[in-house]
Design brief:
Layout lengths: L1 H11 L2 H21 L5 H12 L3 H17 L3 E5 L2 H14 L4 E4 L3 H5 L2 H7 L3 E4 L2 H8 L16 H12 L8 H18 L2 E4 L3 E3 L4 E6 L3 H7 L3 E7 L3 E2 L2 H15 L7 E6 L13 E7 L3 H5 L15 H4 L4 H4 L10 H11 L2 H9 L6 H5 L6 H16 L3 H11 L2 H16 L2 E2 L2 E2 L21 H8 L12 E5 L1 H7 L1 H13 L3 E3 L9 H5 L3 H12 L10 E4 L2 H14 L4 H11 L2 E2 L1 H7 L4 E3 L5 E3 L3 H7 L3 H8 L20 H4 L1 H18 L3 E4 L2 H13 L5 E4 H8 E3 L1
Parallel strand pairs: 1-10, 2-3, 2-4, 4-7, 5-8, 7-10, 13-14, 13-15, 15-16, 18-19, 19-20
Antiparallel strand pairs: 5-6, 6-9, 11-12, 17-21
Length: about 700
């Protein structure tokens, strides 16, 4: 892990990388939104997901049909069981044609098998012709993004590379001029090369045709001028029909770069005519790389990863990738999907490092145009590898011995409160207690009295006086129970004010998400099964309210997985799932109208699991109710960097993500940040306090209780 921390610090100190990633992150999201205007993205991605969802036997049948069709058209097909076999076959073809040079169009599969070093070791010079790939080839680096391999470089760095390697005078502000230099340099190699190598975005079985999507003309030159064309691809690129291929290409450019359509789509079929071939026909080879794909096809838990269309959009929206880039958050394949593919195509240990960098925000799952639940795959694979290599014993003992036992949790919280009270400052931990790398925020101290205790003292008896036919079962979660009981009190007061009765669990048990995210599924099962005991019985409530969206998302989507082997508990959980709401959703359903008491200006931070788990956030709700006081925030749904244990394991990354969030908050000129997640409150409030920025952070329940009146 020392190497990982070193690489993280290097990336975070790279000003060019940080500027490039931040600019791209914001611009991409806006371009993606515009590219899908007038279209239903969710419908399109479900359609692509169905096209790419194939049983192993169907995928093998498609391969045999494709092989038969392309061989009829005069092409050759080779199946390579691993990278070595693939490279050996490609080199044998090159040597048979006395190829001193090969020209390459961008291919992640060629990167996967490490084709360039293999060619060079065998005396063959590969020339990358995609501008980004050529730049990083000159720099002797690897791609930092699947679609934009040189995203980490700026024009000054590129100009320097051109001066050093091409011995030309370069104006670093003349981007068009640098493109002309590249075009001039590369042009001769299309004619020198005896072999052109490309990947394929789709391979259409019914016609034996491949489709290649590019934004530069190099792809067509690589596949047409040399007398030999080698296509390197995986079985996952196969689709049944041309219509299926077009549906994939409809979403690919929109998700990859935010373009409505790519500049070039090239379709290639069979041994076409070639002036540079002695036979008059181009020699076409298809090299299908296994390298773990066949095993993945047969894996019922993870074969969903093969639906990936290599658009890179999961990295485009990932907050961790957005501050680290692909040279840290990646091996060969970068970003969230790269962490998954590394575990199947490459090294377990490297995969563990990448998987641990996931902060669990679910942005990757929501953006995937093939409808892959990427974050769940990351969590499941990480859990499997943690079981294989051993979970952290200290954390496991906390999960199993504390979080699954309400009485133990309560005792420890109380003792911790009494001890820390002696070193607190304004109800927060004194920074002198924090290790330097963790001292980027001010953390709260647990309260002496839990929310449940306060509820039974102050509010329980009052619930019988509330004249309402509707009952809200309120699940406070650990943070509100032990750290922010005032948030729980504010929501009870507000719900009573609008005529709703409130019940709470007999005992408060953790939702289990910390153990799930940490890969400790044994402890997670123990915690969740204990928590289910205290869930309400059917028909005893109308709404199941969560003020922590992470708790809500875990209850709604993960509980069923951990109780699926116990029918009664499973039935109980399924009933609760249908009733789960966050506060803004509840108020919207009840059509509650409010007005501000003092006209305070506020902005809204959208928590990750609220937006991408519970699928309803208070931004639009509050904006519609209080339009004159709402201050829009740039990238309001961008992660704050908390991620529970993520901010403990990777404090440097957590701080970097938080810095961007605070910058966006300050730019709004709002006096209050409203949100609906205690974890986000802990992170953002702690960050603002540490930086002495006078902006309040309030849970929606507190904001409603303090700053608005019900109409």
């Amino acid at each position: 892990m020392k190497r990982v921390y070193r690489d993280i610090n290097k990336a975070l100190s790279d000003e060019v990388l940080q500027q490039n990633l931040d600019t791209f992150y914001h611009n991409y999201r806006e371009s993606h939104r515009k590219a899908y205007e007038g279209l239903n993205f969710n419908d399109l991605r479900k359609e692509v997901g169905v096209i790419k969802s194939l049983k192993p036997e169907d995928r093998f049948a498609l391969f045999e049909e494709f092989k038969n069709n392309v061989e009829k058209a005069g092409a050759f097909v080779f199946e390579a069981k691993d990278s070595k076999e693939a490279c050996e076959y490609i080199v044998s073809v090159c040597k048979r044609h006395n190829a001193e040079y090969v020209v390459k169009s961008k291919s992640m599969t060629a990167e996967e098998i490490k084709l360039n070093p293999y060619l060079e070791r065998n005396g063959i010079k590969p020339i990358e012709t995609d501008l980004g790939e050529w730049i990083i080839q000159l720099a002797k680096e690897t791609p930092s993004h699947m679609i934009m391999p040189a995203i980490h470089k700026n024009r000054k760095q590129v100009a320097k590379l051109f001066r050093e390697h091409l011995n030309v005078d370069v104006d670093e502000d003349d981007i068009e001029g640098m493109v002309k230099i590249a075009r001039h340099y590369l042009r001769e190699y299309y004619f020198k090369a005896k072999v052109g190598i490309s990947g394929a975005n789709v391979a259409v079985v019914e016609t034996g045709t491949i489709g290649i999507v590019t934004n530069e003309g190099n792809g067509r030159l690589v596949t047409t001028i040399p007398p030999v064309h080698i296509v390197v691809l995986g079985y996952e690129k196969l689709v049944k029909t041309f219509e299926d291929a077009l549906k994939i290409l409809r979403v690919l450019p929109k998700n990859a770069t935010g373009q409505i359509i790519s500049v070039y789509v090239t379709w290639i079929k069979g041994a076409v005519e070639s002036l540079n071939s002695s036979s008059g026909k181009k020699e076409l080879h298809f090299v299908f790389v296994d390298n773990g794909r066949k095993a993945l096809m047969d894996n019922p838990y993870f074969n969903e990863a093969l639906k990936c269309i290599r658009c890179g959009s999961c990295a485009n929206v990932c907050p961790v990738y957005g501050v680290l880039g692909g040279h840290v958050f990646g091996h060969i394949y970068t970003g969230p999907i790269g962490a998954i593919l590394t575990s199947f195509y490459h090294d377990d240990k490297k995969a563990m490092e990448l998987l641990s960098l996931c902060c669990g925000c679910k942005a990757c799952s929501e953006i995937c145009p093939a409808n892959i639940d990427i974050q769940k795959l990351i969590s499941d694979i990480y859990g499997g590898l943690r079981f294989k290599y051993g979970v952290d014993k200290l954390r496991s003992s906390v999960y199993s011995g504390v979080l699954s036992k309400p009485s133990a949790m309560k005792r420890i919280a109380k003792v911790g409160s009494l001890i820390l009270k002696t070193v607190e400052k304004n109800s927060h931990l004194n920074s002198c207690l924090m290790p330097k790398k963790h001292d980027f925020r001010v953390l709260p101290v647990p309260k002496e009295e839990s929310f449940s205790s306060l509820f039974r003292k102050k509010f329980e008896a009052l619930q019988t006086t509330v004249k309402s036919e509707k009952t809200v079962f309120f699940y406070p979660g650990c943070a509100i129970e032990y750290v922010y009981p005032e948030i729980g009190e504010s929501v009870v007061k507000f719900l009573n004010k609008i005529g709703l009765r409130v019940k709470i669990p007999e005992k408060m048990v953790c939702c289990g998400y910390p153990a799930v995210h940490d890969g400790d599924k044994i402890s997670a099962k123990r915690i969740i099964n204990e928590s289910v005991k205290y869930l309400p019985v059917e028909e005893s409530f109308d709404y199941f309210l969560v003020l922590c969206p992470t708790c809500g998302t875990t209850l709604k989507y993960l509980f069923r997985e951990f109780v699926s082997d116990t029918p009664r508990e499973y039935k109980k959980v399924k009933f609760v799932e249908e009733k789960i709401v966050n506060l803004s959703r509840l108020l919207d359903d009840l059509n509650v109208k409010v007005k501000t008491k003092n006209g305070i200006l506020f902005t809204y931070h959208i928590p990750c699991h609220q937006n991408r788990g519970l699928h309803f956030n208070g931004e639009k709700f509050l904006k519609s109710l209080l339009p004159n006081y709402y201050m829009p925030m740039r990238d309001a749904d961008r992660c704050c960097g908390f991620g529970g244990s993520f901010s403990i394991d990777y404090p440097q990354v957590s701080k970097a993500i938080l810095d961007k969030k605070i910058e966006n908050i300050v730019d709004t000129n709002a006096s209050v940040v409203v949100t609906e997640c205690p974890g986000c409150i802990m992170q953002i409030r702690g960050g603002l306090l540490k930086r002495n920025i006078p902006v309040e952070v309030k849970h929606l329940s507190e904001f409603l209780d303090e700053y608005v009146e019900v109409e």
